[in-house]
Write a structure and sequence with these properties.
The chain contains three helices and eight strands. The chain has a four-stranded mixed sheet, covered by helices on one side. A hairpin with a 6-residue loop joins strand 6 and strand 7. It has 142 residues and is an alpha/beta fold. It has one domain: 2,3-Dihydroxybiphenyl 1,2-Dioxygenase, domain 1.
């Protein structure tokens, strides 16, 4: 087995908003687990694992501020990238649900990508690969 990213954990103030963005973007994902931690360092939080059988985003409540904007020079995760089979369909679903595109990625002959922000300034990158050949998909010299 090769190593892979199994999950990322994010804290937000409005879990419903971020879950709606992810489930709208990725209709093959679901809430695969959820619960309550009564004492998360002095605070009760709700947590959700949103994803599929292989990977997920752990989303927990309890956030008190927004993340900095991705273009600013703060330390932390700038975005979470998720590969998808049909980027244009994803864009249509998100825009119809009220989530505007933040920006598109650079032109590349073997992949296309787009970025969306949730209301907490957490950025999600969605990428569609147009080649099954890793050398083409991962060519950064273009």
């Amino acid at each position: 087995m090769k190593s892979y990213v199994e999950h990322a954990n994010i804290t937000v103030s409005d879990t419903d908003h971020t879950i709606k963005l992810l489930l709208t973007a990725l209709p093959d994902w679901s809430i695969r687990g959820e619960g309550v931690n009564q004492d998360w360092f002095g605070k009760s939080i709700n947590w959700y694992h949103v994803g599929n059988e292989n990977s997920y985003i752990a989303i927990q409540s309890g956030g008190e501020e927004k993340s900095g904007h991705w273009s600013e020079h703060w330390t932390g995760v700038k975005h979470i990238g998720i590969a998808v089979p049909d980027l244009e369909a994803l864009i249509t679903r998100l825009e119809n649900a009220g989530f505007p595109i933040d920006h598109r990625g650079a032109d590349h002959p073997h992949r296309k990508n787009v970025y969306f922000l949730d209301q907490h300034n957490i950025q999600f990158e969605f990428v569609e690969y147009l080649s099954s050949e890793p050398t083409k998909r991962n060519d950064y010299s273009l």
